[in-house]
Amino acid sequence: MIRSLVEKMEQVSQANGGGQVARVKVRIGALANISASHFREHFEIETKGTIAEGSELEIEECGEFSHPQAGHILLESVELETDG
Amino acid sequence: MKKKTSKKTKPKKKSPDRRQAATKVIKVDYLARVEGEGALYLKYKKDQVEEVRLKIFEPPRFFEAFMQGRDFSEAPDITARICGICPVAYQMSAVHAMENALGVQIPEHIRLLRRLLYCGEWIESHVLHIYMLHAPDFLGVPDVMTMAKTHKKEVERGLRQKKRGNQIVRVLGGREIHPINVKIGGFYHLPSAEEFAQLKEELKKGREEAWETLKFASRLEYPDFERQVEFVSLLHDSDYPMNEGRIASTTDLNIAMQEYEDHFEEEHIAYSHALMSRRKGRGSYLVGPMARFNLNYDRLSSVAQEGARDVGLAPICLNPFRSLLVRAVEVLYAFDEAVRVLESLSGSLAPSVPVVVDKSCRGSWATEAPRGLLYHRYELNVDGTIRTAQIIPPTSQNQRTIEEDLRELVMANPKWSDEKMRHRCEQAIRNYDPCISCATHFLKIKKEQVEE
Fold this sequence. Notes:
heterodimer; A: three-stranded mixed β-sheet; 2 helices; 30% helix; globular; B: alpha+beta; three-stranded mixed β-sheet
């Protein structure tokens, strides 16, 4: 799951002129079956050697299980380093 | 006051270099995908269904291959990664198979603590299955999010009970998913008496609430469908089976675990990625909660037997849809057993026994994962590295039975609409709680009409 997020970040980076990921914002649904701490641990392992290595990770845990995306992990935004 | 529904965790501080770099924010809104997919192929001749094939597509993960050459002590942590819902089952089969290879005898308190850990996994896995995956099928809603609109209390209860299961795994296993405290010979360290005491109080509350789960499950409407199949599970002398026993069936089987491969075989089916097991010289069989229940009813605690009686569940249960009810009985049992184990612990306990590798050896073992019998076999080199590994999960053992259930269902109802067919087949697949459950909410059905 995190690898697919990394793939998505790579696509986003390429589509926006490249660059390392500085900050990532994700939202974990109430029924996504993963805790923030566990997600963070996997994120740090899986992003090693990728454009997201060392990036800041902001996690929002949504406690509302009637939310339409309660069962999912949503990559809300990525912040890319630019030359400018 | 507005109810708080979400919380944020602070990101790590940026390195100074990064903080100085210019950045731009891109909004993405990308949902992480779930791996695995199921498809059902139906071949029709006029109005009659001629052929039914369940196809499972999942990427190969090569766990058995990449364990080769690794140290034997790594097996519990590596195999735990096979599943995020039942990592304990993989750890338990792995540690016991290694101990079988190395001739390790574990003391009674380690045996009990392994049961406690397994109770945690049964609770979290069964509760997840009952409330989040299967109940929506019975209530005619697409998912648990929709179910929460009309059954908020039930969903809240499910989350609460699942947390209690996770709590056992966290306290004893070191963390709630993919636990890290299990080793060959026992545990790396044991929780304090205070941690055990807090856990016991929480599990007593869980045992009370487990009755509500059972009542909820008993109010669901179960399709009228029965099939006579061979049920296979562990059979222990005195206890409801988890980590020990002989492998038995409702027909004629009663063998040592090490004889598993003499009686069962896996075959590769051209149309599916998942291997399919069979009884040698026969055919399909069923593992899982219904098999355990049907073979071990008299080994359930009196509380769990009372629960089963209350909801009119007596062995032998032949309706696979009612496996949800059996799971609810096993949830009650697991809470009851976990409290019993915690009440039986006393004094200073050694976390493990020493393990020595001084010769090449081979061992195998099976334990009862929430979804059913899970078999592991390992061959070790003299230096303790793994020469070969063989892992046979419950899903591959049940795949043939799932397909047969589907065949019987659709052949008896060839005129069902596509929507009805998809709904009932998805529900039937989830009776078995296979690891593709999450992915088969949208089972693809392909119909082909052939000429006579």
